[in-house]
UniProtKB/TrEMBL annotation:
Name of the featured protein: medium-chain acyl-CoA ligase
InterPro entries: AMP-binding_CS (IPR020845), AMP-dep_synth/lig_dom (IPR000873), ANL_N_sf (IPR042099), Mitochondrial_ACSM (IPR051087)
Keywords carried by this UniProt record: ATP-binding, Ligase, Nucleotide-binding, Signal
Catalysed reactions, semicolon-separated: a medium-chain fatty acid + ATP + CoA = a medium-chain fatty acyl-CoA + AMP + diphosphate
EC number: 6.2.1.2
Family note: Belongs to the ATP-dependent AMP-binding enzyme family.
Signal peptide: 1-19
Amino acid sequence: MRWYLLQHLLGASTNTAAAAVSRLDNTTCLLLRHQKYCTSGNQFDYDAATSKYRKLLKPREHFNFAKDVVGHWASVKPNHPAVYLTDGSKQTVVSYSELYQEAQALATALSDPVAPRCALVILPKVPEWWVLNVALSWCGTIFSAGTTLLTPGDIRHRLVESKADCLVCDAAMAAALHTLTQSLPRRIVVTDNNQHVGEGWISYQDVLKLSNGKAVKPCVLTKGDTIAQLFFTSGTTGKPKMVPHTQANYGIGHIVTARYWLDLTEEDMLWNISDTGWAKTAWSSLYVPLMTGATAFVHQMPRFDGAEVLRTLSEHPVTVLCAPPTVYRALLQYDLSRHTFPALRHCVSAGEPLNPQAMQLWTQYTGD
C-alpha cells in the first residue's frame, strides 16, 4: 500500500507548485521520486511532472462524459461493475452497460419535449445518483448536487441562484419541500417499492417508463467548456457562491487525479468516503472510477461507523481507499491487529493534514 497526499500539486501553477514543494519533507519527496518527479536532492522537476499528461488534457471542441467515456466502457467491458453498493448486508451491483442503458432511457424521457437546463439533485447514496449524473450529462443539463443536510432556506438559495428548473430528491425531502418547490416545472422523487408521491411530483420509475417504446434521444453535442456540474461554496463568508465545472475540466481533467494520485486501473475498486452532496464525490466516486473503467465502491451507512468501515475493508475487494484524515484517526482507535485487508493496496487522504505518526501506524497494520 502506498500513501499519496499531494492531491493537486501536479496540476498547480508553477509558482504554486514551487511554493508547495519548498515545504516538502524527505518522505514526501521520496514518494514523488517514485514517480520520477523529484531528484536525489529533493528538487521538484515541474516540467517532467506535467509533460506526461499535457497531451491528455489537450482541449477538445466537443466532449460529453456520458457518451465519450461511459459509452466507451459500456461497449468495451459491458458486464464490468461500474458501481458496487452495499448497506452492510446486501449488495447492489450496476454494470457499465446497465448504467449506460438506464441513463440513455432516463435522458430520453427527460428530453421530451425539452431537457431541463439545470437540475438540483439531493439524494443519499443510491444507484439513481450515478444514473442521473450520466443521464443529465447526455442531455447537456447542468447537475447541481446538494447534501441531504441542506435546510429549506439553503435549497431556496440554490434554486434561485442556479435557476434550476428540475429537482430530484427522496420522499422525505419531497414532503419537506412540497410548498417551496411548487413553481418548478419538474419535481422527481426517488422512492422505494412504488411509494405514493405527492401531487405535482413524479416518481423516478415513472419517468423511466416515459421512454418505453421510444428511440434513444441522441446525445447533445456538448462542447468541452459546456458547464456540467455546479457546486456551491460552504458559505463561510456570506451566502454560498456558485462554482461551475465543465464537461472537460471534470470529465478529462481528473485523469490526473486518477493516474497520479489515486493510481487507479481498470481492475481497481475505489472506496471514496464522502457524501453525495460534495464535489469530492463527483471526483472520486463518479468521474475518476468511470473514466478509468474501474469500480466505484459505495457504502450506504447513514452515518460514519468505524467498526463497519474496518469490517467492510476486510470483507470486500476494495483496493483503493480515499478518506479524510478524521476517518483514519478514528479507525486507529480500534484494535487493527484483529483485522486483515487482503485487497487494499493504496490509501490517500485530503482536506486537512494527516500527521506522519498516523500514516505510519496505519501502514503498519495494512501493509506496504
